Amino acid sequence: MNPLCLNHSAVALTKTFASSSKPQTPPSLPKGTPRSPMNASMAPSAASFAALGRLSPIAQWFQSAAAPTGPGGIPLAQIRQNLAGIPVQSDARELGPKPNFIALNEIASANTPAKRAAFAELKTAQAKLAAAEAKALTNEQMVETRRNAVDGLDTQIGDRSMRLAAGRERVKELEAELLRTTDPDDRRALNTDLREARTDLRNVEIELSGMRTRLLAANTSLSRSERALATSKTGVEAAQRGLGAASAKFSKWVKDNGLSHNRELRTLNEQLRGAERNLARARARGANATTLQGLENQVEFLGQQRLGKVNELNARIEAFEPLVDIRQNHHTITVDGDRVRLHDNVATYATDTPEGLEGRSDNDGQAVVAARLAASGLSADKQQILGIVSGHEGSFSTINTWDRAKVTAGFLQWTLGEAGSGSLVGLMKEIERRDPAAYRERFQRYGLDVGGREIELTRPDGSVLRGSDAAEAIQRDPRLAAVLSRAGTDPRIQDVQVAHGASTKIDAVRAMRVSAGGQTIPMGQILSSEYGVGLMTDRAVHGGEGSVRDTVTAALARFMQANPQANLSNPAWAARAEAQVVAALEAVDRPRARSFHALSRAHGSFNP
Fold first, then answer.
1. For 21-28, which contacts have Cβ atoms below 8 Å and span 24 or more sequence positions?
2. 461 Cβ partners below 8 Å, 6+ apart?
3. 299, 276 in Cβ contact below 8 A?
4. What would the DSSP string read from start to end of 423-446?
5. CA 9 from chain center: how many Å?
6. How many other CB atoms sit within 10 Å of the CB of residue 134?
7. For residue 118, what is the enclosing H or E element?
8. Strands 323-335, 464-466: pairing kind
9. Is the bond leading into 37 cis (omega within 30 degrees of zero)?
10. Integer CA distances (angstroms), 302 to 10, 277, 289, 305, 309, in order
11. What pTM value is reported for the model?
């Protein structure tokens, strides 16, 4: 269709619109027509619209229809404007020496209990040294203050001593002159002066006595402070030795375990072993020379790849420094009136992205979580359990983007995951289903969306990132991280977080079926105490639903092996089984389990 035909169509549309008393909408494009940009053959000429001034409303509609759009049909220009309108204030802070998490995770990229323990020991030793140094500095300042007090009293005592000597001399002089004088008037005057001199002398003696008492106390305090300083310096030396030992132990752990804990090298090892097995099988069945040569080339190539990776890792291990100075960037970002505070370089055993961020909105916290749970309509048991889990995980706007999960957000810390298709995608889809307006306002207008089963990010230039690429882009972008955090302060989204959390982390997990001893039952038939459901929920949030099922299944298998006659559908047997399952869940993370100790352990006490 040429521009002239479009002009005639526009005139016809104008007449149709003008003749109707009801609001009209422009005709929709044929089904399947791309939303953006318009097909070139259908795009109206801007010049042709300009030539027909009376058609400006229609021209405006065609122009908006032709404009490139992002998720939810929001124009790219609006997405650019929304993102550009987010103010960011940043400053850098020197944190001093911290465990070298950057080099650690480049080498030992897999997270294991041994790695966590080694990192925690070094971090504890560094914290002890920092505390010892702070205490020594405080004591040093106290010694300086008290030494100045002693010096000041010494000076004052010297001054008063001279005044005392002068006062005594003055009294002697007046007494001698009084003995020589016979004139009554002179004697009266001398007696007056003598009384004043003696009064001044007594005052100086009293002041001097008080100062000497204070000096004695000040010297005693100074001595105590000097002893405390000496003790704290000894503490610093001990902490330095402890840090040195922890650093050496940490470096040794990296040296001993770096190769075995590197995911890339582990993958290469698996690929090489697979190629060697394929070659061995081919030789055994008498494959032809061409096939054997191809498999041998593959083995040789993978062997070279593995050797290169080993050499690279060994060089990093050799250069590894346990402690490095960390410079942390802090961002204050205002999104739709809410202030979000984020910082990078989060020193943990799991940090693999130094540019990754952590923080939350100022308008959020555990008090907000408690209030929203109280208004949720959930049972008191569910409210209490979700509140305890949230205390470990964060509040509605809590976000972190520094580990393998790429982006983790919300009061139960849903994640995007390495592929950008994790549980946070499910939460976002639930928000869109329950409240499309909130979804559009908090996500789509900034280019964030869900496509199928993965996260999508429409960039201001119109390019679209999906899955892991989108997750990595959000991971390092303070503005996008702040947008996700800010969404958590929207009451509509908080309500969805609560409902979705209860549904997926409590109800759905209790409904999972587990098998042991030839019996298959819902998990909730075993885990029915407040305490048991609390541990189950915490593990589902912190380790994933699969982790819960594996732990429960293994514990039930041990129980059935010891009690082959047990009928798990019988409440008495189920109660005994729950005790063993709860013990297994406790053993996974005892510190977190302790936070649920106030809950009832009685089988059947959980009120769904």
1. 26/58, 26/61, 26/62, 26/65
2. 76
3. yes
4. HHHHHHHHHHHH-HHHHHHHTGGG
5. 57
6. 12
7. helix 113-180
8. unpaired
9. yes
10. 65, 13, 20, 5, 10
11. 0.75
What b/e readout covers 159-187, taking b as 16+ CB neighbours within 10 angstroms? Answer: ebeebbeebeebbeebeeeeeeeeeeeee
What is the CB neighbour count within 10 angstroms for residue 117? 12
CA distance 70 to 445: 8
> Is it the case that residue 1 has pLDDT exceeding 90?
no
Burial of 339 (0-12, 13-18, 19+ CB in 10 A): middle
Render 140-167 in DSSP notation, one character per residue: HHHHHHHHHHHHHHHHHHHHHHHHHHHH
Q: Residue 202 carries which side chain, given as an amino acid letter?
A: R
pLDDT of residue 68: 87
Encoded amino acid at 104, one letter: L
541, two tokens: 């949030």
Length of the chain: 608
If you ran DSSP here, which 8-state letter would residue 42 be given?
G
Question: Residues with Cβ < 8 Å from 226, sequence gap 6 or more?
Answer: 143
74/93 Cα distance (integer angstroms): 38
Q: Once rounded to an integer, what is the mean pLDDT over residues 177-195? A: 90
CA distance 300 to 293: 10
| Among the listed residues 233, 473, 475, 447, the one whose alpha carbon sits nearest the alpha carbon of residue 353 | 475
Span 443-475, pLDDT tens digits: 999 999 999 999 999 999 999 999 999 999 999
SS3 350: coil
Q: Cβ of 32: how many Cβ atoms within 10 Å? A: 5
Do the Cβ atoms of 11 and 58 come closer than 8 Å?
no
Contact 506, 432 (CB under 8 A): no
End-to-end CA distance of the chain: 63
Q: Decide: 510 and 526 in contact? Cβ < 8 Å.
A: no
Cα dist. 52→27, 274, 379 in Å?
A: 20, 71, 65
Residue 127 C-alpha from the chain's centroid: 19
**CA pair distance 210, 150, nearest whole angstrom:** 14
- Alpha-carbon gap, residue 220 to 535, rounded angstroms: 55
**Structural tokens at position 477:** 């972008």
Beta-carbon contacts of residue 71 (< 8 Å; ≥ 6 apart): 443, 444, 447, 448, 449, 456, 458
Q: Which residues pair with 96 in a beta bridge?
A: 326
What gap in Å lies between CA 461 and CA 85, rounded to an integer? 16
Distance CA 4, CA 49 (A): 10
pLDDT at residue 165, rounded to an integer = 94
Averaged pLDDT, 520-547: 96
- Within 181-262, residue ranges assigned H as helices are 184-257
State which amino acid sits at residue 71.
Answer: P
